[in-house]
Structure formats: structure tokens, C-alpha cells
Amino acid sequence: MATTPAPRPGDLARLTRFVATGAVVATVAVVFATAGERPWQSVAAVVMIALLPYVAFVALARWVSGVVAAEAVVLGGLVLAVFFAVGLYAMAFVVAPGPRSGSVALAVPLFQSVGVALAGAGGAFLRWRARASR
Questions:
Q1: Taking a C-beta distance cutoff of 8 angstroms, is the pair 99, 126 a contact?
Q2: Cα 55 to Cα 78: distance, rounded to the nearest angstrom
Q3: What angle do CA 89, 55, 101 make, to 5 degrees?
Q4: For 85-111, how does the pLDDT look when each residue is reduced to its tens digit (9 = 90+)?
Q5: With helix as H, strand as E and coil as C, how does the chain read?
Q6: Residue 68 in contact with residue 129, Cβ under 8 Å?
Q7: Closest Cα partner for 81 from 127, 16, 132?
């Protein structure tokens, strides 16, 4: 039985950047699909706010690149943040749609900040530990 090789340094960081890119495209699509009759300036502001957590994940992925455990923590934080977004959008537009569902795009980054904080703290600790053990 063949074993799968362990990820090399940088592999998970590249995967994190790829997943963040996909999340950005999906977020922009959801915001534009749910924009309704809002003016374009309002939609652009919501897009900018909604993309901030993904910018943080890309920066974290670049920062911890080379430390496989830290890369895994950052990828895990991104996956957690994406699940927060999917859950909130599902609650707002599928489970209980209503007149205030349009404001969920501003609440999503607030909940995703939990994933950013956990990924940043875990990534920083593991990066520090890897550098201290040299």
C-alpha cells in the first residue's frame, strides 16, 4: 500500500491562496446577485468590506510559508471562515429570507474575523516555534 507524501513547505500556502481566490470570486458573485436595487457605490463598499478577511488570509499564508504546520493552521482558519460565510448566507437567503437579509454581507466578515484571529495566533506560534528550534 503506497503512502501519500507529506506536503512540502509552501504547498499548503499555495493551496490557501488558491482557496482564498475562489472564495473572493464566490463572495463577489453573491454580493452582486443579492444587490437588488442598491446603488453601485454601496455594492462596491460591501464588496471591499467582504473581501478583507481573504486579504488577511493571503497575507498570513505568505507570512508562514515554509513552516508546514503553520501553513496547515492558516488553511484551517480559511476553511472555518468559508464555512461561516456559507452558513450565514444560507441562513439569510435560504432558511429565513427577509427584508434584512441584504445586510448579511456586512456581518460575514465580522464572523470570519474569528477564523482570521485563530489562524493568525496559531500560525504565529508555530512559526515562532519552528524558528526557535533552529
A1: no
A2: 11
A3: 20
A4: 999 889 888 888 887 777 788 888 888
A5: CCCCCCCCCCHHHHHHHHHHHHHHHHHHHHHHHCCCCCCHHHHHHHHHHHHHHHHHHHHHHHHHCCCHHHHHHHHHHHHHHHHHHHHHHHHHHHHCCCCCHHHHHHHHHHHHHHHHHHHHHHHHHHHHHHHHCC
A6: no
A7: 16
CA proximity to 46, closest of 102, 119, 118, 116: 102
* 64 neighbors 9 (Cβ within 8 angstroms): no
User: pTM here?
Assistant: 0.85
Question: Is the CB of residue 82 less than 8 Å from the CB of residue 24?
Answer: no
